[in-house]
């Protein structure tokens, strides 16, 4: 086949495929242009998740009428002028590809007016074909309307998700970009309903409160470090405030969101040994360094970067994280109204300084009255297993006729609770307890939308909640078997885990409810580091061994490891 030069429409669609793959990509490119234009307010309007309409309206510096046509040509930009500018990029956009790519696969209309009020003009482009520039009416700034995305690329349109899925991606983009500039006010409207509003504020902490809620914002630790021209600032979460994925980790280099495996590794390494596997911190980390020491011209989406000295950047971030995680702020404050013993003050306690309250099991009367009994000989053993101690407040040491078993108390209790919930759910439904004072949780908008849309599933597993507005929910009823213990631990983490399950398991009933029940059991189970009385440990082991499967928790983690008596004798050279 002979070599031929591709036509311009084909090259535009190829270029668009690198930059625009869903409505969220359109939102990202248009909002970044609005930020670069010095906007103080940005409004985003979506319909059907952005597949039928995306509107971005700003009050930035605007454009002259004669510039509108040039704005849709590839590699036309006001951000850079010379080759040297590529090595000192200070704006979010600079490649001059976004508008041309969007226009190639949609019907787009731009209306813009310079801030000096020199008259507004508009231009329409459909599938890359441009119309004429016409007078229009609007105040200073720019409005861009994108309709019928991928109308001329049906193969790409078939890969889009549902309107709800596409909206979640687009809304997440807006909220991430809102973290860049707290001084910019934001709104997001979806299908004629305002779903996100963040007025301009004076600090990143205030913006965190707008996006994640005040409880989360107050659980964040500030970070700060400076080495060799590299400055690190931002916030990371305390270990008791965590997520089930990395979605709420934002890495920002010179005001630009980036995806950098090295920095992600530094963040996860800082929490190693602090968070259990599968848990992730919330983080907003700003890294600033001279622009000529970072290359952002690596990929059309501008999220991949290269540092001239990545080791120095990583070391500075690591220093900031280590300093924050070793400070007193990492300790969760005492519950409101409680004071440190003997001081009359509300100073934070040291980690593990206070033993947890005894957990409640169905124990024989003489055991329940024994309190924090530690003498194994006084514990009534009804089976052939005897708990002889607790190791590191996490593992139970169990004597058996065959040797020694080590039981993970958390996953053991989780299995017991899960089996109980599963039995109730399969029989007549989970028995609920009504809270006289509802428990309050604050969640980000996308989490709130999942809770609102999946209330029926939550009710099936015993949770009744009301939306209070602004991302706040009141939990009015909860599974009775878990309510007391979950109240002690709080509901924030378990609600986030439930939302993650609802958002990823689809509509297949059995796997979905199985995971929801396992998350509920995990949230209420005894935690690693919880000292428990020997009597209650004995009851826990006996309930565990009565189950059909006492060896793995609902998440697949092992519960018991065994050491045979013959092996112990051999190790100690008794045979």
Describe the protein's architecture and organization.
The protein is an alpha+beta fold. The protein folds into three domains: about 10-200, Heat Shock Protein 90 (2-Layer Sandwich), CATH 3.30.565; about 205-330, Ribosomal Protein S5, domain 2, CATH 3.30.230; about 365-560, Ribosomal Protein S8, Chain: A, domain 1 (2-Layer Sandwich), CATH 3.30.1370. It contains 19 helices and 25 strands. Strands 1, 2, 3, 4, 5, 6, 7, 8 and 9 form a nine-stranded mixed β-sheet that branches. Strands 10-11-16-13-14 form a five-stranded mixed β-sheet. Strands 19-20-21-25 form a four-stranded antiparallel β-sheet. A hairpin with a 3-residue loop joins strand 19 (about 385-390) and strand 20. Helix 2 (about 25-35) packs parallel to helix 6. The longest helix is centred in the C-terminal third of the chain and has 18 residues, at about 410-425. It is elongated, with a radius of gyration of 29 Å.
Index terms:
single chain, 575 residues, alpha+beta, Heat Shock Protein 90, Ribosomal Protein S5, domain 2, Ribosomal Protein S8, Chain: A, domain 1, 3 domains, 9-stranded mixed sheet, 25 strands
Average predicted local confidence, pLDDT: 80
What is the CATH architecture descriptor of the largest domain? 2-Layer Sandwich
> For the record, what CATH class of the largest domain applies?
Alpha Beta
How many strand units? 25
Number of domains: 3
Give the low-confidence spans: 334-378
Structural class: alpha+beta
Count of DSSP H/I helices: 19
Radius of gyration: 29 Å
